[in-house]
Specification:
The complex is a heterodimer of chains A (about 80) and B (about 475). With about 80 residues, chain A is an all-alpha fold. Chain A is built from four helices and no strands. In chain B, about 25% of the residues lie in helices and about 25% in strands.
Chain lengths: ~80, ~475
Amino acid sequence: MSNLEKYNKIFMDCFSLTEADLNSNLKYQSIPAWDSVGHVGMIAELEDAFDIMFETEDIIDFNSYEKGKELLAKYGIEF
Amino acid sequence: MNRFSDLERFADRTALIASDGQQYSYKWLLEYGDAVAQQAAPRSLVFLIGSNTPQCIAGYVGFIRRGVVPVLINHTVSQEMIDQLVDAYKPEYVFHPNADGEYELSQLASSPNGESATALPLVASLPPSNQPCSSQLYPELGLILTTSGSTGSPKFVRLTYENLFSNAESIAEYLEIASDDRAITTLPMTYSYGLSIINSHLISGACIILTDAPIIGKDFWTLFKGQNPTTFGGVPFVYDMLKKLRFARMNCPSLKYITQAGGHLSAELVKEFEDVCKQKGIKFIVMYGQTEATARMAYMPWDKLEGRENSIGIAIPGGEFFLIDDNGAVIDQPDVPGELCYRGPNVSLGYATCREELAKGDDNGGVLHTGDVAKRDAEGFYYIVGRKKRFLKIFGNRVNLDEVQELLLKRGIEAACVGKDDAMKVYVVTGTDCNAVRQLLAELTHLNQSAFTVLNIDAIPRNDAGKILYSKLEN
């Protein structure tokens, strides 16, 4: 699975979304499932899948589907 | 006993800091709150649609000072649920944010004693047919809280002024709240734990930094860094988030102590925060309570926590615990489990499910049967070991399993709910779309879908009388 596929799968699984929902409109709190509870669950899944540990700043900066890709680049995850 | 009636002595001090950083003095708090409350008749009922904003807190204080009885309802509750609650409770007023986000008081019906207050705007979205209610409120009734923040249940807890202020005083005493303390909110003011932090700080002349921003977001931490809080409280999920945010590596020198309540935090996490807080010079205080006792019943003195990470501690000042066996006899020996009972001035009058029941007096007589099963060790510390009632704590919210089943049944879905805290298992008959039920549950309870696992089963197991056999579903 490519990094993008892994990333997308986590979003779809955590928030019960389809591929079509994954776009620049998908933001923290833009859907009920992505609240603080959903956020923590998703962060944990990403950390497991990519074997990384997010910095505090990055967890609170992670406010959209697109922003997440940018942040993951800091940890050497290229899309 | 109305400890909000002499807040004037703190007039020049800062009472509230809004999420934009603006400061509000106690003088402002009292002037704004009294002006709002003056529009309502004393001993009338007001639905307060609560948020962590200066206007809302000031209105709440004003109502308590004037003897107007507020029902605290979270602003996230749907209009449909509010309408149902209005039908059941017939409040004379609603204090709510308008389209511009400013709070205003609207009149729904004339007051019970016929006294007409200032002419106020009617709320278009609420039933204008709301009949004036003839039922008087019980004289000592001061405040009404909901038992469940999320399902819109009409089961409310009736509290007196003495309940409210004796609990606030007790909390201020054991936490040693000082007038230079600054608490930042992590919980809604409509939630008994969140409200207890506000009450105990106000009677101490301390300051509350108000925000509805979640602790996982940037807004919260920007405010935190700018305002230097000395304390906050958190339900177990807040501590999960703090762990995820690497609290251990955060620099927060302003913090003096942090509290935990609203459900059981695992002994491992308690130990972790105990150690981290020790390193940082922060007191970590584990507590226990229920809305039925206003908020707080127990706390663990921070310097006694080591080796007792699973304990809820001891009764708060002014209260006492005892355990009873299945026959109602008091258990004297240590380490024998029984139902945890609490006696104290903060034990509520009882429940209500409609307006007429707000006239009722004291059902509890100062003793609360908590529904939790606990044991006491030889040193007098209490440990929760089980639960008698069918409810779960989900992200700090009490969720009654039977109520959830009812909500689903109303929508034509037969279900049986079991599970553990933060993880409800919902069984539905084969053929029902599990994913759709999961989404519906999230909608109905306003809780994240990750709390629910929906499973198919051939038939819900029942006994001959039709009662669900939950023991056949567990595990």
